[in-house]
Amino acid sequence: MQVLIRKARVADPQSPHHDKVMDILVEDGIITRIASSVKADAAITVDVPDLCVSPGWVDILADYCEPGYEHKETLQSGMAAAAAGGYTDVLTAPNTQPVMSNQAAIQYLLQRAAGNVVTLHPTGSLSRNAEGKDLAEMLDMRTHGAIAFGDGWKPVQNSTLMMKALEYVTAFNGVLIQVPVDNALAAGGLMNEGPVSVTLGMAGIPELAETLMVYRDVELARYTGSRLHISGITTAASVDMIRRAKADGVSVTCSVTPYHLVLTDEVMRGYDSMYKVSPPLRGESDRKALVAGIKDGTIDCIASHHRPQEWDAKQKELEYAAEGMAVQELTFNIIWDKLKKSLSTERLAELMSIRPRAIFGLSESVINKGNAASLTLFTTTGSHTLAKGAGRSKGVNNPFEGMPLVGKVIGIVNNNKVHLNK
How far apart are CA 98 and CA 93, in angstroms? Predict the structure, then answer.
């Protein structure tokens, strides 16, 4: 298979071709030529105005629901959404049925996903069946392909269990992923606790439900000397704690969702269940603190927290509606549309590819001759609108559908395959 990418600006600070406009020839999955002009009769040619190319993007937490909840999403529909969104690699949540809690479950997912243009990396559950009681067989899962561990949408509440897990994974330099929610403090809440929730008369979730969990887990990581990734931080206090922990040498990293970067709890004034997420959307000062964390490097990467829901799960009273958004296909557009003045394509590549690859031990995917081609092709100009109901995901909970957003994902090259968006 030959692919010729013409006149693409390289967004890869690891590459000697960074920030240069180059032609790139890929043959049988390998970058064979990079030059200002390449002549080749390739089977596929990509020639798009203002084209950019970066190392393949990585999503560190997405829920593909299979096995057990195929009515929400399947591996095939999930990977189709990932490819359309520019992702070459995806770390999947363990909250399937049965839970990704043993080697058989891990192998099932890897076998089902094999041969796709998108590479899936299963996250194994930290506790057995994600019940938060006993440690799962993490070493066995690691041996058979689990890339990291965590209980996904069911954050570990038991401090002793969390400490034991952190100690356990040090034996093989593993990484734990935790979504920062204290369930007891968040219980009954429907949105961020603040002026908007008071005005609406809605039960609020205090920032303390997040910051207490961040503090606990950072201190446990400090105590054990283990590696921890906190995914989906939403508050200024969380950013500050992680910034200080990093300065102290604690092995903690973090990520933020696209919707927490661009939305605030003001959107809840419409009582729209599409915006019910966990952790909840916060106030403007917290949103600005997240953007500052992106700029100064405190926040390591973007996580879509792709959590598809069927119509029945969202179209009901806010109190009973399911949480989450299915925005993987538009993650790039969401953040670029709002933050294009704050982000360079170099920083985008770091957030979407370089840092997550380093944290979770994936191939660096440097854009250089002789390396395997794992590439994301995109533009930072123009406008893209995903028509309502036209997304590849089965999830109906994407509030950004129908919105014109800046930038466009052109496609991906990975696993000696090509996906190009129409």
Answer: 12
